[in-house]
């Protein structure tokens, strides 16, 4: 399952319910897990509370994605999924009809493996490992989406159109995985660029997710910053309407007649508070495409299972960029109850 967030933690995020699992595995008898302590977005936001109260953030994570697969397949594509537990889920029939795997969950509840991207200056082992150490990494739910994410204080609105976009973005700011430089403007600006996987769906939208800590509680907000097909954001809620859906479920097919091949934007935080620690990361959403269970159902000539989605919207997540206010600006706050057990 995906580990970004959960609808119970992010009720205002329309894309939160993506390949989530809420039960412990491996013979636990379906025991429900601790959702509050199981997802990356909440950890990133809780980290801001630790930073404010203790001067250190133990959850300053970079983002990667992968699989807990046990069959040696590289099957991150929905159309090429071969299961994850060898002969216990090796065929479409077993995957769609068996009760549980050795992990204690039906095979149809598992998502496909993810993929990790690393931005390194050259394709060498030292350069790649240095980039990983610097958290200049991003994860996807499987497709080979490319995404760049930079933060600074004065990026031009036209930066993403510049032929030297990447060079200037590094020079004038920082890449994903880093801290914003010392405040030198009214609000931070972020530059994001995404390119679709040529073998997957077009792009629906790019979002920036912000997390912060206020009044003893974690807070978050999702901003649509770039989207396809000339749609208009709702004037009151600021939300962009759904992109549509071209999926033919019976034939497990779709068309790229909606969405765009690439999206880019420069965005400034309209709700910036210079006294608050904050964390930002970008999320790229594809148009709807068939889930692997829909491909298996086509092979078997049956309807897709009703207890999992027939279509999904694949995605990518960048490593975050953090904002730390200057010491004299920080407001004293109390921990919220979820953090108290971790106090020294």
Give structural notes.
This protein has helices at residues 40-54, 92-97, 125-133, 165-172, 292-300, and strands at residues 115-118, 137-140, 146-152, 173-175, 189-195, 203-214, 217-227, 262-268, 278-286, 289-290, 311-312, 315-318, 321-323. The chain has 344 residues and is of the alpha+beta class. It has one domain (35-328). The strands form three sheets. Strands 1, 2, 6, 7, 9, 12 and 13 form a seven-stranded antiparallel sheet that branches. A four-stranded antiparallel sheet has the order 4-3-5-8, with helices on one face. Strands 10-11 form a two-stranded antiparallel ribbon. A hairpin with a 2-residue loop joins β6 (203-214) and β7.
In short:
With 344 residues, the protein is an alpha+beta fold. Helix content is 14%, strand content 22%. The chain has 5 helices and 13 strands.
Jot down its keywords.
alpha+beta; 13 strands; globular; 5 helices; seven-stranded antiparallel sheet; 344 residues
What is the rounded Rg? 21 Å
Can you summarize the main beta sheet?
7 strands, antiparallel
The number of distinct structural domains comes to 1
The beta-strand count equals 13
Mean pLDDT: 89
As a percent range, the share of strand residues is: 15-25%
Give the helices and strands as they follow along the chain. HHEHEEHEEEEEEEHEEE
Model regions low in confidence, pLDDT < 50 over at least 5 residues: 336-344
Outline the fold blueprint.
Layout lengths: L39 H15 L37 H6 L17 E4 L6 H9 L3 E4 L5 E7 L12 H8 E3 L13 E7 L7 E12 L2 E11 L34 E7 L9 E9 L2 E2 L1 H9 L10 E2 L2 E4 L2 E3 L21
Antiparallel strand pairs: 1-2, 2-12, 3-4, 3-5, 5-8, 6-7, 6-9, 9-12, 9-13, 10-11
């Amino acid at each position: 399952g995906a580990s970004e967030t959960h609808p119970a933690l992010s009720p205002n995020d329309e894309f939160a319910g993506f390949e989530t699992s809420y039960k412990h595995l491996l013979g636990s008898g379906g025991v429900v897990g601790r959702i509050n302590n199981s997802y990356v977005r909440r950890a990133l936001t809780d980290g801001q509370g630790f930073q404010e109260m203790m001067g250190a953030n133990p959850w300053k994570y970079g983002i990667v994605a992968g699989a807990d697969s046990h069959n040696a397949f590289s099957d991150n594509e929905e159309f090429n999924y071969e299961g994850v537990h060898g002969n216990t889920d090796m065929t479409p029939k077993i995957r769609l009809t068996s009760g549980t795997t050795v992990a204690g969950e039906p095979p149809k509840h598992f998502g496909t493996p993810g993929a990790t991207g690393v931005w390194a200056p050259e394709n060498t082992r030292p350069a790649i490992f240095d980039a990983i150490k610097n958290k200049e990494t991003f994860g996807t739910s499987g497709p080979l989406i490319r995404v760049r994410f930079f933060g600074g204080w004065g990026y031009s609105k036209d930066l993403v159109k510049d032929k030297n976009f990447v060079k200037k973005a590094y020079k004038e700011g920082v890449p994903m995985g880093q801290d914003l430089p010392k405040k030198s403007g009214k609000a931070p600006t972020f530059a994001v660029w995404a390119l679709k996987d040529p073998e997957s769906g077009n792009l629906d939208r790019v979002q920036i997710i912000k997390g912060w800590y206020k009044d003893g509680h974690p807070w978050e907000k999702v901003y649509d910053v770039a989207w396809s097909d000339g749609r208009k954001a709702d004037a009151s809620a600021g939300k962009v309407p759904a992109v549509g859906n071209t999926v033919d479920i019976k034939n497990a097919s779709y068309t790229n007649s909606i969405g765009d091949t690439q999206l880019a934007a420069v965005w400034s935080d309209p709700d910036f508070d210079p006294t608050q620690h904050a964390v930002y990361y970008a999320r790229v959403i594809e148009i709807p495409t068939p889930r692997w269970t829909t491909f298996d159902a086509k092979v078997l000539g049956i309807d897709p299972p009703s207890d999992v989605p027939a279509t999904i919207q694949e995605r990518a997540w960048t490593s975050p960029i953090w904002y730390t206010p200057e010491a004299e600006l920080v407001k004293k706050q109390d921990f919220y109850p979820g953090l108290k057990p971790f106090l020294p």
